[in-house]
Amino acid sequence: MKFNFSISLQNRLALTYALFISLALLILILVINHFTRTMFNSLVKENIAARSHEIVRVMGEQYRPGRRYFDIAAVEAMGDLFAQEGYIVTLEDEQGNLVWDARSRDMPRAANVPRRVPNRMDDRFGADDQMKKERFPLNDGNNRVGTISIETFGSLFYSETESAFLRSLNRLLFLAGFVLTVVSICISILLSRTIAKPILKAGEAARRIAQSRKPSNSGQPAPARPVIRVDENYHTRELAELSHSINSLAEEIEKGETRQKQLTSDISHELRTPLACLQGTLEAMIDGVYATDREHLESCHEEIMRLSRLVEDLNVLTGLEWNNIALNKTEFDLGVLLDNTAEQWRTAAAEKGIDINVELMEAPVFADYDRLKQVFINLLSNAVKYTDRGNITVTLKPLDTPGEGKTGWLITFADTGIGIPEADLPHIFERFYRSDKSRNRSTGGAGIGLSIAAAIITAHGGSITAESNPCGGTVFRIQYRST
């Protein structure tokens, strides 16, 4: 059996933050404890050394030089005091004879020190050292009067006060670590919630967008699509960018749906008109209303060709968009191609009182002749269609391309027609896009000619742009570069 275990982003972030902060706190506490213990041990060692020298000084003061002996009563009193502190003292004279030994006296404290101190150090602090003895000379001026031995535990030992201090310090560090760990967990939960919340909102918005776009199987008309947006007011740049991307995606989907509906309407219209003409003409000839003559057959043929051109345009555009069309490149003069194309439209332009002016030059290129001709025919067709008076100017000029090792050409189609509104300019090269003023159904066209033109120019490595003034016509500029 396969188990699919997953954890939410918020919980994962909270767990990660909590583990990271707890680990950092643990390391910090261990470092503080280590340095504190090291510094404290250094201080204890200094205190032990200082106390040992103090014991030597005090014991030396108990020597009576006039009588050449030690005050045993004073030595015993001092030795008992030192034994309470963990120091076992043995005193010898200058000949090495034993004067006083804390172990040999009936001193419970001295007897308990070798057992009590090691046990305490081992149990509480893990120290496994043993009692060690250190000898110091006793001098009266320049004369040596004896030797004192001081026996202590290991390299260092803690007094009861020092042991209590270390225990309190460890408890304080443990309590601080516990409190900081709880605080870190709370902070981790808040941080993870702050970060995960906009991501969850974005995911929920994406889910709602997908859900709202599913087709309805109820047979009822689909309800209006809800407008789905997420808040972009975040101080974290990545979160703000994510929210903005979701909103941009939603807007593009809505625009795409609008264009899809427009596409359906446009294609239906483009197909309905020639089909209706064909149906009416054929039915009239079948019923004997129209004679089966050349005139009516040519009318049917014209509508069929109109349908064929629409289907061909769709196939060309699909191939170009999927990079699935081969360019048949040959060497030819771009100026000659532009001149021949303009000549084909002079008659149609003259019928509307429009002049076509050309400013051309010799421009050898290596490109697909038929595809570029298709582009130029489309641009001139639109110029003639949307211009009622004035002129159309076609120019060809060199394009400076320093350092690129290429020959560039700038091709311009300028007319004095109705122009294109500024709001429509960014979309005119989109498939099936129609501008209300310059691309209405009364003037014909399926709204894919400019899309095909842009795709062909792009396939050649060039670019096409449009500028327009509603009162001054339209200018199309093509930048073409060839090796």
Description:
By secondary structure, this protein is α+β, with helices and mostly antiparallel strands. The chain is built from ten helices and 13 strands. A hairpin with a 3-residue loop joins strand 12 (463-469) and strand 13 (473-482). The radius of gyration is 50 Å and the shape is rod-shaped. 21% of the residues are buried. Mean pLDDT is 78; it is low at 1-5 and 436-444.
Gist of the model:
This protein is α+β, with helices and mostly antiparallel strands. The protein has ten helices and 13 strands. It has three domains: 171 residues, 2-Layer Sandwich (Beta-Lactamase), CATH 3.30.450; 74 residues, Helix Hairpins; 157 residues, Histidine kinase-like ATPase, C-terminal domain (Heat Shock Protein 90).
How would you summarize the topology of this molecule?
Elements: H1 9-61, E1 63-64, E2 69-70, H2 72-84, E3 88-93, E4 98-101, H3 108-125, E5 131-140, E6 143-153, H4 160-212, H5 237-287, H6 294-321, E7 329-333, H7 334-344, H8 346-351, E8 354-359, E9 364-368, H9 369-385, E10 390-399, E11 407-415, H10 449-459, E12 463-469, E13 473-482
Parallel strand pairs: 8-10
Antiparallel strand pairs: 1-2, 3-4, 3-6, 5-6, 7-9, 10-11, 11-13, 12-13
Helix pairs in contact: 1-4, 4-5, 5-6, 6-10, 7-9, 9-10
